[in-house]
Write a structure and sequence with these properties.
single chain; 430 residues; alpha+beta; Ubiquitin-like (UB roll); Creatine Kinase, Chain A, domain 2; 2 domains; ten-stranded mixed β-sheet
């Protein structure tokens, strides 16, 4: 078989939609998709009144556009991969596309002469199909946190993912097991925000497909197992100045004592927009099974130095390694939109000179000084987002109206489901 091109884009369900194209398409180009893909739910229902999807206007096409430089080696033999931007039939960027929201957020920071740098930590559970067809946890009875080797991965799934990722040019920073088994963490190297998110959505697809070939269903669902912890998408953030220095660096020391005005502004923005951020970064019904007190998930409106119980974690590292970590998001969110929301809230805090509340003084297990957390469920979180007019304006009114509409439909669909039914509604896709 001749080489092929696999163009893909990440939709609102965090699914990578795409197609295979012949060798002649391996270069600058475009291909069309039906714009109402944005109106499709997990159960394949078409939500025809979803704003921004043009379902009621003939279900038109949209164009995925890329350059030759965007094309990279894939993980399937003879297959190249690429993503790009989505344009409607008038030639305008589609405002409800996650990648477009991220590019707007990046531009907001570049207006200050700063380039956002992002590193993403992805957590996932490994499942297998039992003889009766049900999903069961991957059998790692001797598994443990920070575990490596075959005891923690008897099928060699991690080695297969690492090899495929390396051959495809992904720069892996770390793979290890998480606190709960069978849970794994995947981290790629810091990069400029757009490239970092392009990488993580492609890597996530690679990991799911390679794991599937090893007989494992790798799910990035926030809470697939009721008796285990949740899986997050942690966003690590720094900024490069025009001369290539880390703008968060402030001398030879890290941590709270070395925080500059930029760091303080970013964290103040996250605290001010804490409730509104939940609907964008934790956007499924299942997200709120993970997003709970004493769960190390970003529930509380708090921040602190090298503290995993807070939402905004200040690294103790200095110099080029100085960074801030936002811990609320999970991978049921479109990663472009989730990172965009984190960047926009940080920018609002920096530009607005928001007051920074005191750092967390509690352990966040037995108690906390944080005044409040996020909403108890997705519906209330959507209300919080709608009420946060500054965050809505920063993210884009069209994007937020679309997001809220689709998510309220999702709430209705799952309202009468059992916990197992809700899991099955999401798990094959997230």
């Amino acid at each position: 078989m001749r080489d092929r091109l696999r163009p893909m884009w990440c939709d609102q369900l965090s699914l990578m939609r795409g197609k295979y194209l012949p060798q002649e398409k391996i270069g600058a180009g475009s291909t069309r998709f039906a714009q109402p893909c944005f109106a499709v739910q997990y159960d394949k229902d078409l939500i025809i009144d979803a704003p921004g999807t043009n379902c009621m206007d003939g279900l038109p096409d949209m164009d995925l556009v890329w350059t030759a430089d965007d094309i990279r080696q894939g993980w399937e033999p003879g297959v190249h991969i690429v993503t790009g931007d989505l344009y409607d039939r008038t030639g305008a960027l589609i405002p409800i596309a996650g990648r477009a929201t991220l590019k707007r957020a990046i531009d907001g920071w570049k207006a200050h002469g700063l380039t956002p740098m992002v590193g993403i930590e992805l957590e996932a559970f490994a499942m297998v199909r039992a003889e009766d067809g049900s999903l069961q946890p991957y059998d790692v009875p001797g598994g443990f946190v920070y575990g490596t080797g075959p005891i923690n991965d008897p099928n060699g799934m991690v080695d297969a993912i690492w090899e495929a990722a390396e051959e495809a040019g992904f720069r892996i920073d770390m793979i290890t097991t998480e606190y709960d088994t069978p849970q794994y963490e995947f981290t790629l190297t810091f990069d400029e925000a757009l490239r970092a998110v392009d990488d993580i959505v492609m890597f996530r697809q690679l990991a799911k497909e390679v794991a599937f070939q090893k007989g494992v269903i790798l799910t990035f669902m926030p809470k697939p197992l009721a008796d285990k912890g949740g899986s997050g998408l942690h966003v690590n953030l720094s900024f490069l100045t025009k001369d290539g220095h880390n703008a968060l660096a402030n001398g030879d020391k890290g941590g709270i004592a070395a925080m500059n005005d930029l760091a303080r502004g970013c964290i103040a923005g996250w605290m001010q927009h804490h409730k509104g951020l939940a609907a964008l970064t934790a956007p499924t019904v299942n997200s709120y099974d993970r997003l709970q007190p004493a769960s190390l998930s970003g529930y509380w409106c708090n921040w602190g130095e090298d503290h995993r119980g807070v939402t905004a974690r200040v690294s103790g590292e200095a110099g080029n390694k100085a960074r801030l970590e936002h811990r609320m998001a999970d991978a049921s969110a479109n990663p472009y939109a989730a990172v965009a929301a984190v960047l926009q809230a940080a920018r609002l805090g920096f530009e607005g000179g928001y007051a920074l509340p005191e750092a967390e003084t509690g352990d966040c297990f037995t108690g906390q000084s944080a005044p409040y957390g996020v909403a108890e469920n997705l519906g209330a979180a959507l209300d919080d987002l709608a009420a946060d007019t500054d965050l809505v304006a920063a993210m884009g009114a069209e994007y937020c109206a679309y997001h809220i509409h689709m998510k309220r439909n999702e709430i209705e669909k799952t309202a009468e489901m059992t916990a197992d039914d809700v899991r099955d509604f999401y798990i094959w896709y997230v």
